[in-house]
Predict the structure.
Amino acid sequence: MAKGFLLDLAGVLYEGDAAVPGAVAALERLRAAGLPVRFLTNSTRNPRRAILERLARLGFNVAPEALFTPAAAACAVLAERGLAPHLLIHPDLAEDFAGCDRAAAHKAVVVGDAGPYFAYDNLNAAFRALDRGADFLALAANRTFLDADGLRSMDAGAFVAALEYAAARKAEVLGKPAPGYFAAALASMGVAAGEAVMIGDDAEADVGGALRAGLGAAVLVRTGKYRPGDEARVRPAPTAVVADIGAAVDWVLSR
Amino acid sequence: MAKGFLLDLAGVLYEGDAAVPGAVAALERLRAAGLPVRFLTNSTRNPRRAILERLARLGFNVAPEALFTPAAAACAVLAERGLAPHLLIHPDLAEDFAGCDRAAAHKAVVVGDAGPYFAYDNLNAAFRALDRGADFLALAANRTFLDADGLRSMDAGAFVAALEYAAARKAEVLGKPAPGYFAAALASMGVAAGEAVMIGDDAEADVGGALRAGLGAAVLVRTGKYRPGDEARVRPAPTAVVADIGAAVDWVLSR
């Protein structure tokens, strides 16, 4: 029996600016069963404040401390290591780094989904910081996201790959599928990995990441960025593949 | 004894808009020794016409048919396979693709060093063409180039890596270090790979590429993008590492 849940946000709880049908009720069923839930997003386009506002607007009852974002994970790493950030992110996300020490001598390039701000000069400035010896942190390494026009678009991971190739070294990924990201959320609810369930629409970051991090189960939903066959392209395979979060919650609670 | 030479251009014959000291004389010594020479560039920023003009302006005597460019290799592949190009290149290079069939139903994304034209929307349009099934040709996969300000900047290879990561498939690289690119230049002068010498400033593309393509020797020059220690970072190791093209020609002719 599962003792705690990790939920992805975009593509699972909502798509664009609409809640996934049944998602609000599904979350309430978990709460009614007395099961703790943490929200683990790889979104690096919107600041924490905007994510919480959107969740509230769509009817999801989420406490700020239950929301885990890659930007918050990055701020913790920067503080712990005494690094100043060289940000390659969307300007909308900058507020999440407002509390960082900017004066530290040693820098860390921090890459998020900068979208249209992935311009050559911005990328090259980050590359040159790496070339001077800066640390290299990737908020996430997602390949693609489902864009507003319904087609896939290049996500931050592609630009992390570009910098890795130019600098001939690897970034430290802080969001999913990094095991430490799952571990921090599990620790906050005092649930062992093997007793927790991840629900997500990204076969690689959500499902593969969770199972490699030791979670007891990972359920892939067929909403959001899911495409038929995704489950066959990831190892370990999802524990279950279901229509949406409502079906995922039913699947877990019925076991 | 070497029977033919392949020379890289930028960083070997010239740096920026000045000939490398002694380079014109070095080329003349090869000619005087009766040795055929082909010029094998990975530059995809300037069209063929501009490269030939620059060589002439700097005093290098180079016949058009002796110059091999990745763009020409791409045009040959497009024609052979009946593909229309989806170009992700610098506008200056567009004239080298003027003769391509644009009407063919099947497309090939062709990536060159677009520099500031590596904007998000341009990259994402190329990604979406790949997502629709287009072929994937990279003119070159260089990591960095020595920029006008004396610092390294991101080269086309980084953006090829970004597209490869997002599309989860590999590009076919047409320039150095692709063995076929060396082979075409060797065939044009009727020299066997084992009897030819490559001279370049790029340990990976020039030296590693040439030796993997079977060339008898590859000499790394300490001009252009060369950085101390480059020779230790590439396998196979260069046959020799010398100050510049003058020293490289002396080294070969004295053996």
